[in-house]
Amino acid sequence: MKSCQKWILAAVTLALVLTAALLSQQRGTPVQAVPVLRSNLLQSVAATGRLNAPARIELAAEVTATVLAVQVREGDHVKAGQWLVRLSDAEARAALQQANAALAEARSRATQQTTVAAPVAVQAVVQAAAAWRNAEREFQRAQELVAQGFFSLQKLDEARRTLDTAASALQSARVQAEANQPRGVESSLAAERVAQALAAVQMAEARLARLAINSPVDGVVLARNVEPGSMAQPGRALLTMAAGSIRIDAAIDEKHLHMLVLGMPAKAAVDAYPSQPFAAQLSYIGPAVDPQRGTVEVRLTVPQPPIFLKPDMTVSVELIGENRPAALVLPAAAVRNADTAAPWVLKLQDRRAVRVLVQLGLRGIGTVEIVSGLKEGDLAIPQTEKVLPGDSVRQAAMADPVKGMEVPSFVTR
User: Cystine design at 232: which of 61, 131, 207, 277 (Cβ 3.0–4.6 Å)?
Assistant: First the structure.
């Protein structure tokens, strides 16, 4: 009898254990799951970078001089040609005045040569020619009279000397007249003197210009290293400027390289003004990947930079790619091995965790598109849940269905 009771007790105990195990198996491990939903999906790439200028320019004096005035301070926007720093220039101004006076004198002499010396030289030729003709007639008359015995040979010699002198004077007058012609030597010398005086003026103007430092380009003053009264030295920077339109320099993870296209639109915001985003555009993709960080350098232009932008500000950028409406989407945390050739999802199916291979499409910030493998309404177990394929599970509480899983138009990181 006692033996029968023991067998009955053992059977009951075994039945209770099996029942408890069955109930436990039917209950399963409680997990949270997220549903596959249809939503608009915007593919984008987020990055952090800095505002930069294409070039930095240091403005320095070419001569040693005292600083008289500085017209700008740090942060000022300047235009090309705008006056920035003025150095002492009294001596240079006096030299320019002297050079202008020499130029005026040279031009006056050139005018005098054209209007006075040239006509006088022409008249001198006329007079010399008349004197030569007269001397020639006198010589011929003297020859006749000597032949007739009325004059002595001495008289003929005097007439010959007079004729030779007249001929020499005529030749000299002709040479002088030719020299005063527009292409003559005197005209050329006068033009050369004017050119030399003009060069001296230009040199004096250049020396004076070196004492007034102007902005070579449009830009922003980054540093002011000089004050009125200090001494400017050649090679010592007086001002530092950022030149050219401001741009964004950033680094993108190499895994997103296939998504980048020149001209790609983007939205950006600086950390100092996160609520005031501005438009940008991808203008440069680096030719190589940084092997240390696994990133590629990109640059973005800012067509209409806000006034508050300053070089070296930290900026968050979202490069906006393809937009796909009514896509099947899941939170990225629910997809495993997403960057491999065989991504998969742990699907909650019939109270079990089932491994399902999926094909991915677009990737947004925090979300991915499911092209195949799942359908709308299927439940996926995120990677945060500590379960394995084949485990018995049950849904503990519906995870937030990724409210409006549309990627926002701008995300800061």
Answer: 61
Distance CA 316, CA 49 (A): 6
Give the closest residue to 29 by CA, choosing from 302, 275, 393, 381: 393
Q: Which domains does the chain have, with CATH numbers?
A: 28-45+324-398 (2.40.420.20), 47-51+245-322 (2.40.30.170), 55-88+211-243 (2.40.50.100), 91-209 (1.20.120)
- 8 Å CB contact between 36 and 373: no
What digits encode the pLDDT tens for the residues 297-348? 999 999 888 888 888 889 999 888 777 888 888 898 899 988 888 999 999 8
Residues of the chain with pLDDT under 50: 2, 17, 20-25, 399, 401-413
The answer to whether 32 touches 385, Cβ cutoff 8 Å, is yes
What is the C-alpha to C-alpha distance for residues 238 and 227, in angstroms, rounded to an integer?
9
320: closest CA among 263, 361, 262, 266? 266
CA distances from 382 to 33, 37, 41, 360 (A): 7, 15, 20, 16
Q: 149's torsion region: left (phi>0), alpha (psi -120 to 50) or beta?
A: left
70 and 221 Cβ atoms separated by less than 8 Å = no
Contact 28, 391 (CB under 8 A): yes
- Nearest one of 38, 32, 30 to 400, comparing CA atoms: 32
Residue 327: HSE in the Cβ half-sphere, 13 Å Cα cutoff: 24
Each residue's pLDDT tens digit, 210-253: 888 888 888 888 888 888 988 888 888 888 887 777 889 999 98
Angle at 45 between CA 42 and CA 49, to 5 degrees: 145
Supply 109's token pair: 């002499």
- Three-state SS at 304: coil
Residues with Cβ < 8 Å from 194, sequence gap 6 or more?
103, 106, 107, 110
Backbone angles phi, psi at 213, to 5 degrees: -90, 120
The set of residues, in sequence order, having a beta carbon less than 8 Å from that of 389 and lying 6+ positions away, is 346, 353, 354, 355
**In a 3-state reduction of DSSP, which class is residue 244?**
coil
